[in-house]
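[DERIVE STRUCTURE TOKENS]
===
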Amino acid sequence: MIGSVKGKIILKNDKFLIVETGGVGYKINVSPDAFIKLKTNEEVFLWIHTHVREDILDLYGFLDRQELEFFEMLINVSGIGPKGALGILGIASIETLKRAISTGDISYLTKISGIGKKTAEKIIIELRDKMQKNTEEMGGSSLRDELDALEALKSLGYSQNEAREVLKKVSPGGDTNTKIREALKILSSSR
């Protein structure tokens, strides 16, 4: 099993990278976060999940161990495959997803392409206990404030990924309006 890959990105295509290490190029499907952050000809270290089926061996890469562990929890839920898990990781930060699961927010999870109500319920049932402990330890802002801020930024014309990234930089706590104001300040200073 391949557990990690360190090398140079020689190709970036749609949702995967080719990372060359030791003269071998590995095709690695990456999380949306990694795809945005990584650039061709850049040296990279990725944590790898090796997914083996009868006819395919796929590699899934992540920039940090927490993202890999959350991905592996998701694919252990019946009905969620690796591509679906990557889609889930693409909708929000891991902390936000954990809070959505721990609070039973089915409507948030069904926003993900390919995730219906029944699958969202399965995710919540199978992972809720694991997430609740984590959410209680995190404290801070409420899930609803963060989700409302994300939706507001999207309605202002920012992409899902831009909105997610900037909300990660906003100080924890505060209501929806405070989060939006801080996010807009960060966005305007970066342009």
Remarks:
- The first strand starts at residue 4 and ends at 13.
